[in-house]
Design a protein that fits this description.
Helix content is 52%, strand content 15%. Strand 4 and strand 5 form a beta hairpin.
Length: 376
């Protein structure tokens, strides 16, 4: 049995790593972080030129059509480089559901432009007054030609840069409506939000925004479409967390070999070994669970439990390993002139986005109590 990645998937990861490592050194990241918004247009163009932005987009629209697993590998590389590019927003939250559930007209209008980097899409899954993305408090009121949306969405990735944002809302009958909202439409108010990881997010206020039937995604099956999107987005975020923690641990190993104290490298001390080994175990647990979830989803097999397990390790393992790496660096670990601080910030941000480890265990326990132990 071969547990290696497919050749084309491995090539995607290798190409992405080469581009991101070449483009995004510590000095370059400092320059980009001084921009408003924090966005590296040069790296984004390089990803587009190599067609990496089309990794999961069908070939008929200029993509490579390699599927969700390859997209997760790209997300992992973005995490390794803490790259200020909207791969998660545009490819995972936007293009992925569009390619799966979009109408022919929607696909024709946007997918090729997403693959070329010309267009950025996103989705608004977070609300201040609802912690469950599957139960949005934003309302959709039926009209003669579609729906009228009212409500607020928070922390929309690349919301200020996106041309269209996918908005879930609850209709009068309790069903779920998924609609593409033009960010320039009347009634849309978009305000930038500052996050700890410095990546651009936005708060959206929707005041009677009109959407037509042609703007809907998934038709009458909005709830299942939203569940599909949330699961895939969570798995992709776990893959990104894997990249963040993996690279932070590599940096810590390098630092332990180079930093000398008491006439010997600090990496030779037992206390360093033990702390680093614990972090390594956490990262490997995240790796196994993240790829399990990504593989099941890419194979279109039931993956709810696997995604929940991956989210637990992304939260628990992500927080533990990122903090351990910072701790083992000592004072330099929190110096903003040293690159490690970005990895701690990203790991913490992703942990908070996915939900804390106790929260994941509570949800997983409730699912097991209801359905019994999963079969992996």
């Amino acid at each position: 049995m071969n547990f290696q990645f497919a050749d084309e998937d491995r090539e995607v990861a290798e190409l992405a790593r080469k581009i991101l490592e070449d483009k995004l050194g510590n000095d370059r990241l400092k320059e980009i972080e001084a921009l408003d918004p924090v966005f590296d247009a040069e790296t984004w163009s390089a990803l587009a030129e190599t067609n990496l932005l089309g990794v999961a987009i069908p070939e008929e629209f200029g993509g490579m059509d390699l599927g969700f697993f390859a997209l997760c590998l790209l997300c992992q590389e973005v995490g390794r480089s803490v790259a200020p590019v909207p791969v998660y927003a545009s490819l995972v939250l936007g293009a992925l559901p569009l390619a799966r559930f979009g109408t022919p007209e929607q696909k024709e209008a946007w997918l090729a432009k997403v693959a070329s980097g010309e267009l950025i899409l996103s989705a608004a899954l977070c609300e201040l007054d609802s912690s469950d993305p599957l139960a949005p408090s934003t309302r959709a009121k039926s009209t003669e030609n579609g729906y009228r949306l009212s409500g607020e969405k928070s922390l929309v990735p690349a919301g200020g840069q996106a041309s269209h944002v996918l908005v879930p809302a609850t209709d009068e009958g309790g069903g779920i409506v998924l609609a593409w909202v033009d960010m320039a439409a009347p009634g849309v108010k978009c305000e930038p939000q500052v996050c700890s990881d410095r990546q651009p997010h936005a708060h959206l206020a929707l005041d009677g925004v009109e959407v037509s039937e042609s703007d809907l995604l998934g038709g009458a099956d909005g709830r299942n479409c939203l569940r599909w999107l949330v699961e895939h987005a969570s798995a992709a975020r776990c893959a990104m967390q894997l990249g963040v923690c993996e690279r932070a641990l590599e940096m810590t190993s390098e630092y332990g070999r180079e930093r000398v104290q008491f006439d010997r490298p600090i990496g030779s001390f037992q206390a360093f070994h033990q702390r680093a080994a614990d972090a390594f175990i956490m990262v490997e647990a995240l790796r196994l669970s993240a790829w399990e979830a990504a593989w099941l989803l890419s194979a279109e097999r039931p993956a709810s439990e696997a995604v929940a397990v991956a989210k637990y390790w992304a939260a628990e393992g992500g927080q533990f390993s990122a903090y351990a790496c910072q701790h083992l660096h000592g004072g330099i670990g929190i110096d903003v002139d040293y690159p490690l601080h970005r990895f701690f910030i990203w790991a913490t941000r992703i942990e908070h986005e996915l939900g804390s480890a106790p929260h994941q265990l509570e949800k997983l326990g409730a699912r097991i109590a209801e359905k019994g132990l999963p079969e992996f």
